[in-house]
Specification:
The chain has four helices and six strands, in the order αβββαββααβ. The protein has 156 residues and is of the alpha+beta class. InterPro entries: F420H2_quin_Rdtase, Split_barrel_FMN-bd.
Length: 156
Amino acid sequence: MPKAPAPTSRYWKLQRQLTRLNTFLFRKTGGKVGGSYFGGAPVLLLHHVGRKSGEARISPLIYLDDAPRLVVVASKGGVDAHPAWFHNLTAMATTEVELPGGERRRVRPHVAEGAERARLWDRAVAIYKTYAAYATYTERTIPVVVLEPADATPTE
């Protein structure tokens, strides 16, 4: 399996700039614009805290509505490492997300396994086909993260 080249600091600088732009557009238009960076798939803003820095961060992420839950996929991190937001999120008991239209929800994350993961992965690939392509050249299983309402009982 060919390895993807390691991203450079220039790449990460561009990623941060695109994230800031996407966040600005998302908020300015109530979520109507900001999904174009992700090929038009529905996007939410995930609020999390850097594990090492302690800094507040926002990550625009594609999501599935699996009412009352939301689902995100930890796709692009590295060939053999999950993205930083995934590690930050799974280290938190609860956090907040912003949905299109300005709705905010407190959520509690859990990583889907087995049949639940398979069902949600198929749905994610149906709306964002590049997940399937990325899965063919990464050495890791791409996690599917379920965001339960923070006030609900977990359904694992």
